[in-house]
Structure formats: structure tokens, C-alpha cells
Amino acid sequence: MSWLVTGGAGYIGSHVVVALKEAGMTPVVLDDLSSGHAEFVPADVPFVEGSILDAELVSRTIAEHGVTGVIHIAGFKYAGVSVQRPLHTYEQNVTGMAVLLKAALEQGVDKVVFSSSAAVYGTPPTDIVTEDTPKSPESPYGESKLIGEWLLRDLGVSDGLKHTSLRYFNVVGSGSPALYDTSPHNLFPLVFDALLAGKTPRINGTDYPTPDGTCVRDYIHVADLALAHVEAARALDAGTPLLPAYNLGSGDGVSVRQIMTAVAAATGIPFTPEEAPRRPGDPAQIVATGELAARDLDWKMRHSLDDMVRSAWEAREAAAL
User: Fold this and answer.
1) Calpha distance 14→223 (Å, rounded)
2) pLDDT for residue 171 is more than 70
3) Which of 62, 116, 218, 292 is in Cβ range 3.0-4.6 Å of 67 for a Cys bridge?
4) In the chain, what are the domains?
5) Could you tell me which of 98, 77, 79 has the C-alpha nearest to residue 137?
6) Which of 71, 305, 321, 9 is nearest to 173 (CA)?
């Protein structure tokens, strides 16, 4: 019995693989290395290089490794870029998921944990997002994630697929100096790279109706996120009923200025952020509640903001050695 982790060589996926191993479960990785790194996969974990769009490869991997469940993380994850590349986004995230699910069901695999996104909510009408908040994605990326949840819902009805989807906003930190965020679009790598290049990070908007005037967002540690994926897989293995989707949120969030202060402390590089006007469309606050996930998946914020920044910086420094 093993769990196939698609995208298991990526930033989030590699942490899920480690968490599965530590839980005594058997991971198998499928990754095309379009954004992942082969060195992120532990040497004792089976690694198949290839795409979820390759139905024959997916079927063969499932059969050869005795896969009984799938944790689906692979996908094109850049919301902003997806607006310029909608066809690519839908091919990777919708067609790819359909191919994966068809192959899994044909091989008798009936359990799927889907790494979804809080992008399905778009700009919500309230500061605190719950699972019942209306879905109104504002990018092909967010739309593709919502379609992925629909696919699971419909296959649950037609084929008895057991599934759940995990929605979250911003993932940061590192669970190991060997595993780090290499995205060219995420906040922490952008801030670190700016500081290392002798540039000053920027805050967009300092006059929001928040405690310090800057935007408040949800940031969660990647190792906490990985544990939630493992708990969901365990529950499906045990036949425990789960909700179709769970938010993995902090409940209160942190501000952009708080992040900048924590970065200066962790890096030892003192700086005063540049202040720029608001960007159009940036809500003052978007934070998700994690109450249902806490009840069913042992979800909790095990790491503070300082932990998140410090671990991310240590991994960034280790990568530069």
C-alpha cells in the first residue's frame, strides 16, 4: 500500500513526501520537474519522472508501485501568469487531473487528497473566509482549481471516489534546509532576492483599515500544510468521512509590515521598506478560518511568523552554499 504524490519533487510536494515517511506511510513520487527538483526527493522514495498528462505512465506507475491513494499536488500554480497562459493552465490543471483520475479509477484507486487553493474564492465579500464563502475565482488558475474540486465531487457520485480538497493561501517557510521555495513569484523568495541584491523591498499600500495600515493575509508554514495532507490521507485510508473541502487558515493572519519586520530580524539585514501606493484590487484583509480542519485533520498553526521567516531564510542560505 502506497500513496502517489504528484508534484512530489516540488516545494510543497517534497514536504508532503517527508511527512508521509515520518508517519510510516509509503510515498511514490510522480513529477515532470517543470518546477520541481529531483534532489528534493529522498533517495529511498521511488521517483518517476513524467507528466500526469501521460495516461500510460500514470497507470503503469500506479500498478507497479501498488498505489492505493493519490495526493494530487502537481499543477501550474502561478495565478498571475495564468491570465496570460489560460490554455496551458487548463491543460495542466484540468486535463491533467482528468487523465490522472481516470487512470487511478481504472487501476482501482478510490482515494484522493487534492491540494486545492483559496484562489477559488477570488476576492471574498468578508474578511474571514469559511468553506461556505461563495466561490468566485478571478484567474484561470483559481478556476482550474475549482473545476478540479468539481471533478472529484462528480466522481464521488458516479464512482464512489473518496476525496477531500485542501484550500490555502500563502505557503512559506521550510521544514528542512534541503527543501526550499524556488518560485519566482512568491513573496519570501522575492524579498530575500531583493535584499541579497542590495535592493529595498516595497510595501504597496500603507493606508488600509488594518492595525498597521498594510494588507493582512494568511501565511502558513509548509510543514504544517504537509501534515494536514497526511492526516487527510490517513482519514481516507481509515474510511473516516471527510468534508469535500477544508480551509487551512490561521484565523487572524499577519500584515505585510509584520513580515518585513520579521525578515529584517531573521536575515540580520536592517532595512526600511519603501512605501508605494495601493495596487488596484488588493483587499485590506483576506484570512481563512481553519476550525473544521482543526476538528477533522488535527490542523493547527504549529509555527510562528518568526519560525516561518527564519526557516525560509536558513534554507535560502543553505541553497546558496
Assistant:
1) 10
2) yes
3) 62
4) 2-171+219-247 (3.40.50.720), 172-218+250-320 (3.90.25.10)
5) 79
6) 305
* Span 239-254, average pLDDT: 95
**Spatial CA neighbour of 30 closest among 97, 116, 121:** 97
Residues found in the chain: 321
The whole-chain average pLDDT of the chain stands at 95
Give the C-alpha separation, 321 to 81, whole Å. 30
Residue 320 has pLDDT above 80, yes or no: no
Mark residue 118 as left, alpha or beta (left: phi above 0; alpha: psi -120 to 50; beta: remaining).
alpha
Return the number of other C-beta atoms located less than 10 Å from residue 70's C-beta.
28
Helix H segments across the chain? 11-22, 55-64, 79-84, 86-90, 96-106, 140-159, 187-196, 222-238, 256-267, 291-297, 305-320
Phi, psi of 128 (to 5 degrees): -105, 125
> Tens digits of per-residue pLDDT, 6-55?
999 999 999 999 999 999 999 999 999 999 999 999 999 999 999 999 99
Q: Which residues are catalytic?
A: 141
Secondary structure (3-state) at 56: helix
| Cβ proximity of 76 and 139 under 8 Å | no
Instruction: Identify the bridge partners of residue 204 per DSSP, sorted by sequence position.
Output: 276
CA distances from 131 to 67, 117, 121, 262, 301 (A): 30, 12, 9, 30, 18
| pLDDT confidence tier of residue 131, bands split at 50, 70 and 90 | very high
Taking every pair of C-alpha atoms in the chain, what is the biggest distance, in angstroms?
57
C-alpha grid cell, residue 99: 487523465
Separation CA 121–CA 111 (nearest Å): 25
Q: What is the pTM of this model?
A: 0.95
The continuous run of DSSP H or E covering 46 comes out as none
Amino acid at 311: S
**Cβ atoms of residues 294 and 301 within 8 Å:** no
